[in-house]
Amino acid sequence: MLTGIVPASPTYWAGEAGDSAFSPGTRLEPGTLLPGPTLAWYHPSVPREEPIPFDYWVVYEDGDLIVVDKPHFLPTTSNGRIVRETLQTRLRVDFGEDEIVPLHRLDRLTAGLVLCSRNPRTRPCYQRLFQDRVVVKHYQARVAAPFSFDGTVRLGMRRVRGERQVRVDPSGTLTQTRVLAQGTLVDVWPLTGHTHQIRVVLNHLGHPIMGDDTYPVDRGLALYDFSSPLQLAHIAMSFTDPISGRERVFKRVHGERF
User: Fold this and answer.
1) Which of 67, 102, 145, 177 has its CB surrounded by the most CB atoms within 10 Å?
2) Do 80 and 90 form a contact (C-beta atoms < 8 A)?
3) 173 beta partners
4) Which residues are catalytic?
């Protein structure tokens, strides 16, 4: 809420509120005495960021959805450290649409499919798919040493403020992950959603993912070190479309590419 006199900087626009004296989107002129607390918004100043030299591929689009293949190192949305160089910002700029919103998030270091909404009217229907955990998500990871495993891993996980690693903790949030390994290529289907879930599970099994800068040893954050991509990708997803009722299946267009 903005109160008193509109400052000279930054530039403010009126927000949408039923009791506002200004129409939504109206520029609030500097020096204007506001009649009361006024919902307003502004574009914060964002420092120049180093470009991330990798881009997304469009896998599919229609009037409601855009499915893209996100590269390693590009954040899905702003993470506080990177604001401009994100998948969401690039999509909004490239398509000229301010309403594009990723419906789920991949870690910055993870590549693969991201389902995005471009239609605010149908967005809640697709968001509910992820809330209800009915989207089947298939990942592949590469590990250093071959091993065999076929089963569902159930682990308690807990994040601790100030720590990059997620801890395995029986009293933490219960996660479930289907793992199928025959050699060094591992297929994974997370049945729950938790930060670093797949990375924690494979490290717990004694086979950390190649290129992982956090497990088993936290090597520290290096935002612009692109030399060793995490060998983890979201390669396929499927769900029943809540609008059409059709089964939707999306796969990476480039096949196995970590």
Assistant:
1) 177
2) no
3) 157
4) 107
What is residue 94's DSSP assignment? H
Tokens of 211: 């290129």
The string of pLDDT tens digits covering residues 201-215 is 999 999 999 999 999
Q: Whose CA is closest to 104, among 65, 73, 155, 161?
A: 65
**Cα 140 versus chain centre, distance:** 17
Report all structural domains of the chain as residue ranges with CATH numbers, in order of start: 4-42 (no CATH), 57-251 (3.30.2350.10)
CB–CB of 193/132 below 8 Å?
A: no
Q: Do the Cβ atoms of 103 and 88 come closer than 8 Å?
A: no
Strands across the sheet with 40-41, in order? Answer: 27-28, 12-14, 40-41
User: For the chain, where are the alpha helices, taking DSSP H only?
Assistant: 87-95, 123-131, 197-204
pTM (two decimals): 0.83
Q: Report the phi/psi class of residue 222: left, alpha or beta, with left for phi > 0 and alpha for psi in -120 to 50.
A: beta
